[in-house]
């Protein structure tokens, strides 16, 4: 075997995969006919300049695929039957699946998803969304019956359905004090797609960005998939500290700030008004864009959410992201971004390559719902119910675990963030709770240390909350034993 | 100025942008206070080892931003007012917009989109979709009225709405002779998102893939945005030649084959049955996956489309992609992929990071429509109308331009592919036609030489086709003068 080929050490593919690939290719090209002897592991390792263990893994992989076989004493040979006459084989899907640049989702999140799919009777403190009781399902259903879809169902404007963008202009002005025009709005598949488009299209691999700690962003391998370097902005009771930005900029030359300033996920904290102004000042001094992810503000239990950064942003430093998910229905998949027109155009154009835009149908439903007389009463009902659920959760936690947990009581949002005051193994607690029929999200998913828990009180049935906490308390006591 | 910094020549950012960035950062850090003198262009060019013209551009950019100013005789200085007291500025959005890894869409496609947005009276031979006359708008509207949405609108199964996947299992078996299960199906935002997920998640930058020439794929900067190297499979009257695969594999080690074998976009050609078998053989010999993009087959005018590769694929080499766009409505944004379960899982997981999945609403509409008694009559009506439109187009072309054009008459699909037998400037023809109120897609968009045109006969109003061709003929004659 004349080896002019060498594995590429800078590739993201492991060395042994590369070697297995190369050998397979040579075999399929007849360079090694069926039955022929392959070089010994030692020899091949020498020729390729790799460890013998690397070659062992490469051969092992080819053996598993039935391409080669080894017999003690007679070395490693190309399989006969596999390659006889017309050798045919299935693509090595395993290798394709491992090969791309997208990191898999966090294992806790997969584990939660699988558990919920398997057992619908679990008490769900994990899914960060509204239950069907809280969603305006009836309103939407009636609205669809009364206004069936008659628009042309063709490829639509890449920025999104125009009537929805127009509704959002008045929604943003009325509810968020944000003045904008429909040409500065991009409709996306929830806030999620806004974040995805920003990380993919406005940043390049290797760029540094600042995100809150803890934060929803840590639950998203998306940032790492885009090759970004993440730097932390610790969140305290009044939010992140704007002065931290300066140091990060100086040291790491961060290019963007991602922040969820109002009823933050997972902590429930609001960035206080002074800090909002300071953050805008620092960002504009450094010419840094701020991504303001603001899905929760309209859930404010007293109906008076803090003003978004965007409403104070005179220089145009803020990309403002909103969504229907947390105030109406996550399954509609309707979100939006307010941004300078050049940014909106760029992202809309890139999005054409990804999915050709959102379906018009849910966009029309969203536009109608915003426009309808049902929207404001729905919001008011939602706030009341969320507050009631929060109270149920807080009472149950205080009763069942008065000393074991610490938390602040959130004034809006869907989540309660708890610190466990005792030493506990996250994983054991998670599994024990699951066994007892309760699922929650361990805080480490959001980048925090171990010993934190996020409870979503919007998702379980109202009547399950107290029972769920009792089960959680049992689980905690069991793993402390 | 002590320059320890050097621009990175391997970066995708231009040198002058990098230099402007760096200077701006130093200014904002006070390294150059307001009013201070910057190095001369010549000197800075020397220190950085770049051309003087590069520094000129960098300074020009900073001047445009109002960060520095130059006066003849007194050199280049940091602006005073901009940086006094609390210096504040807007992020340089221009640079963010240029910075990402997504290539902009082709300029012809943007030009077409803009023209159509501006002037809705244009005769549209360009948009590759069904007109409202051909879409089942009425059926869908009635169906929505009779079955309003009552399902819970939460985050759904990442593989897609289960009832739709179940309907697709029987649809695929009945209409495409593809036997599968709902766990092997992924619902996507049209075929577009299936292609996107495959290029992003199963391939890595630098990988080589084979695509047909001409092909829809060339209209997608998506492939280049994913960093893939494209190699061509020329398409003749009976499709691409499977033997070409071997050479590409040997030379470039292609990793995947993308093919649209039935009523190919843009040529309308079908890969003949013998070649289908050969292609499967070659692919399985080399262990190469085939992506079969099959949006058009059910438009077959005689109702007997060729069997897809997937129905002949015994080894599981084929990823099969379908869509509602070309047989019902592109604005629904419902497509699907049939793939090994491990692949479906991987792509579904990655997709969670991008958009959290499709809205349930259009998926339910699609499921109901497939299930309904309206589906088959709709298909039959669609085929009749498409054939009628094709005939209108062919007659008009033969009458107006009997010698100037050559084309084969397609037996299915939405498009007719023409060669212009005379020397003509693509761009002049395009602009002249636009001036006369007709828009089409120049063949170069699909990777062909100049002198080709794609006419979509599904999109304009039936009664506009003949007039549109007359206008096109006038435009062609005008640019030949
Ligand atoms: C802070 C934050 N941003 C964005 C999202 C994404 O939500 P969606 O895409 O449904 O709008 C979530 C969902 O949990 C969230 O908590
Ligand atoms: C061959 C081919 N594949 C895929 C697509 C994407 O269509 P959609 O995403 O609407 O299914 C098109 C659209 O023109 C096409 O022609």
Automatic annotation (TrEMBL), chains A, B:
- What keyword terms does UniProt attach to this protein? Aminotransferase, DNA-binding, Pyridoxal phosphate, Transcription, Transcription regulation, Transferase
Pfam families for the chain: Aminotran_1_2, GntR
Instruction: Fetch the InterPro entries from UniProt.
Output: Aminotransferase_I/II_large, HTH_trans_reg/aminotransferase, PyrdxlP-dep_Trfase, PyrdxlP-dep_Trfase_major, Tscrpt_reg_HTH_GntR, WH-like_DNA-bd_sf, WH_DNA-bd_sf
Q: Which residues form the HTH gntR-type domain?
A: 13-81
Q: Name one GO molecular function term.
A: DNA-binding transcription factor activity
Output this protein's name: Probable transcriptional regulator
The cofactors named for this UniProt entry are:
pyridoxal 5'-phosphate
As for family, the record states: In the C-terminal section; belongs to the class-I pyridoxal-phosphate-dependent aminotransferase family.
* KW Translocase (keyword) present: no
Source organism, top-level taxon: Bacteria
């Amino acid at each position: 075997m004349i080896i002019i080929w060498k594995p590429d050490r800078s590739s993201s593919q492991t060395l042994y995969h590369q070697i297995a690939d190369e050998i397979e290719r040579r075999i399929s090209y007849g360079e090694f006919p069926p039955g022929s002897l392959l070089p010994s592991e030692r020899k091949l390792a020498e020729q390729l300049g790799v460890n013998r263990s690397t070659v062992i893994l490469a051969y092992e992989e080819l053996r598993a695929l039935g391409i080669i076989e080894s017999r003690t004493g007679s070395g490693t040979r190309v399989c006969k039957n596999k390659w006889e006459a017309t050798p045919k084989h299935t693509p090595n899907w395993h290798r394709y699946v491992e090969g791309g640049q997208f990191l898999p989702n966090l294992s806790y999140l997969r584990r939660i998803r699988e558990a919920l799919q398997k057992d619908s009777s679990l008490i769900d403190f994990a899914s960060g969304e509204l239950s069907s009781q809280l969603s305006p399902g009836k309103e939407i259903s009636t609205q669809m019956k009364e206004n069936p879809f008659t628009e042309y169902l063709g490829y639509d404007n890449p920025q999104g359905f125009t009537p929805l963008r127009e509704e959002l202009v008045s929604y943003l002005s009325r509810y968020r004090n944000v003045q904008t025009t429909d040409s500065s709005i991009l409709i996306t598949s929830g806030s999620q797609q806004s974040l995805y488009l920003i990380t993919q299209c406005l940043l390049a691999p290797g760029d540094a960005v600042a995100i809150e700690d803890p934060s929803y962003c840590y639950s998203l391998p998306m940032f790492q998939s885009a090759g970004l370097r993440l730097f932390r902005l610790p969140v305290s009771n009044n939010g992140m500290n704007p002065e931290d930005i300066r140091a990060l900029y100086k040291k790491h030359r961060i290019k963007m700030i991602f922040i969820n300033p109002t009823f933050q996920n997972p902590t429930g904290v609001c960035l206080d008004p002074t800090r909002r102004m300071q953050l805008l000042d620092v960002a504009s001094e450094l010419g840094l864009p701020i991504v303001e992810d603001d899905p929760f503000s309209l859930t404010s239990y007293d109906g008076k959410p803090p003003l978004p950064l965007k409403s104070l942003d005179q220089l145009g430093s803020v990309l403002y992201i909103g969504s229907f998910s947390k105030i109406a229905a996550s399954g509609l998949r309707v979100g939006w971004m307010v941004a300078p027109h050049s940014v909106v155009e760029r992202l809309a154009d890139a999005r054409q390559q990804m999915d050709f835009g959102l379906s018009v149908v849910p966009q029309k439903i969203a536009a109608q719902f915003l426009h309808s007389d049902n929207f404001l009463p729905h919001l008011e009902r939602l706030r009341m119910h969320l507050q009631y659920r929060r109270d149920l959760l807080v009472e149950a936690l205080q009763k069942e675990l008065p000393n074991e947990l610490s938390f602040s009581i959130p004034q809006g949002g869907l989540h309660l963030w708890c610190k466990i005051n005792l030493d506990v193994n996250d994983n054991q607690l998670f599994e024990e709770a699951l066994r007892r029929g309760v699922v929650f999200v361990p805080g480490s998913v959001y980048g925090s240390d171990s010993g934190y828990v996020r409870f979503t009180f919007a998702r379980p049935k109202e009547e399950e909350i107290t029972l769920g906490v009792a089960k959680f308390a049992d689980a905690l006591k069991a793993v402390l034993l």
